[in-house]
Every structure is written in structure tokens, then in C-alpha cells.
Amino acid sequence: MIYPGTPMTEILLAGVVGSTAYGLATADSDVDRLGVFAAPTDALLGLRPPRESIVTTAPDRTLHEARKWCGLALGGNPTVMELVWLPDDLYETRTAFGDELIGIRAAFLSSKRVRDAYLGYASQQFRKLENRGDGAFSADTRRRTAKHARHLARLVHQGRELYATGRLRIRLDDPDRYHRFGDRVAAGDLEAARGLLAEAEADFARIRTPLPERPDEAPVEAWLRAVRAAYYTARPAS
Predict the structure, then answer these.
(1) How far apart are CA 106 and CA 85, in angstroms?
(2) Is the model's pLDDT at 237 over the cut of 60?
């Protein structure tokens, strides 16, 4: 699939992520899409390389160039990592290179980066809850507060499971539980969110993880080099 507006840029893997993928979408939720693309190798060598990320609205889509995506995934970025753990029915573009990327998804994982990334993202959600202020809230503020609380709960759940099992499950077993938690926090129970975050921190300290200390960069490097070779077209001699 060629992405319009970027010459010869091909999407290798793309799918629906976010609330729709988790089962948390509401009537107000956007459908978020994420993908990884390959820029022409020759274009990466010049003075003006192509953009590393392409973000659009209508539809809401974020695409990262292959090297950028790999760097984010190796850093434990939870949002980026969703792409290679999606249920099959949520993929919209899936090439041979995309299948290979799914096949090496465990190589991106490492204990410290998973722990730090998931707790870090959950802490960001908690800070948004803390910063909402006191007093009466508008309906829009309550909706946003409930959303931040849902995602805090989702992040600590998925992060703990990934840390404990080495596998990331995208779809949540009981979405209503997260909606109830979000409504509870939006109604004023900030301590429920604080307690959940503290419990997650204690769990990460307690769990004996199967994840390695460092990601396995060798298969990632091999995959990226294969992509570069496949998308290289030599310029004719002048």
C-alpha cells in the first residue's frame, strides 16, 4: 500500500489501535490507526530525508518510518508496541515484512524498559487527574477525567501482564470494569487512582519477570536491513 503524499512510501503493517482495540471505545471515541512504513532507502541518504512520522486526522492515523518505529519499540513505548500484538481482525494492512515484524515482537521487550514505560505512562495519566483542579466540573471535564482514569487502569493491567508473562494482550476481558473505575474517579475518588498506581508499583517490584534485561537487537537489526535492501533502487550512473 502506497501512502498518498509521500513518493514510493509503502506501509508494511497497519491496524486499529487504542480504545477500539481495547474494547473501551465509547460513542465519543475516535478510531485510531497506527502503522509502520518503509521509506525508499535511497531517500534516506540525501540532505533532506523523508519525515520519520506521518500524522493525519480524518482518519486519525499515525505512521512511523521503520527505523523510527523500531527505536520507539525498543524503548518500550506501549502505544507503538500495540501494533505487533493486535488480534488478527484489527490489522488493515499486513505485508510479508509486517508478518516478519510480528514474528520478532518478543525481541523488542526488556524488563526495565517495559516496567519504566508502563508505569511512566500510567503516572502521566495520574498527573492529568491530579491537575484537573477542585470544585464543580463540566460534563466534558468529567468525560476526560473518566477517560484518563480508564487508561491508567488499562496501562497498569496490561503492563503487569506483559511483565509477568512476556505477552501483551490488547483486548481487555472486562471493559465494563474499566468504565466503572473511570466513572468512580470522575465522581471525585482520586484516591482510587492513587491506590491503583501504588499497587502496580509494588507488583512490578514483586513479580519475577521472564523478560530479559535488554532487548535482543540482532533480529531487529536484521529485519531493518532486509527492509532497506528491499526498498533500495540504485540511481543510474551520471
Answers:
(1) 10
(2) no
pTM of the full structure: 0.88
Contact 117, 97 (CB under 8 A): no
Q: Which three cell numbers, joined as nine digits, stand for 84?
A: 505487533
Q: Is 2 helix (H, G, I), strand (E, B) or coil?
A: strand
What is d(CA 193, CA 123) in angstroms, rounded to the nearest whole number? 10
Non-local (6+) Cβ contacts of 160 within 8 A are 118, 200, 203, 204, 207
Please give the Cα distance from 214 to 32 (Å, whole number).
30
Torsional sign, CA 226, 98, 54, 73: negative
Q: Are 181 and 150 in contact (CB under 8 A)?
A: yes
Please give the Cα distance from 218 to 222 (Å, whole number): 6
CA 165 to CA 214: how far, in whole Å?
16
SS3 state at 55: strand
> Per residue in 118-146, pLDDT tens?
999 999 999 999 887 554 467 788 888 99
Map grid coordinates 468504565 to a residue: 179
What is the signed CA dihedral for 150, 162, 61, 143, rounded to 10 degrees?
Answer: 0
Distance CA(25)–CA(162), nearest Å, equals 22
Query: C-alpha cell of 101?
Result: 515484524
Measured between its terminal Cα atoms, the distance across the chain in Å is 31
C-alpha cell of residue 54: 506521518
- pLDDT tens sequence across 201-221: 999 999 999 999 999 999 999
State yes or no: pLDDT of 57 exceeds 90.
no
What is the strand order of the sheet 10-17 is part of?
53-56, 60-65, 32-38, 10-17, 91-94
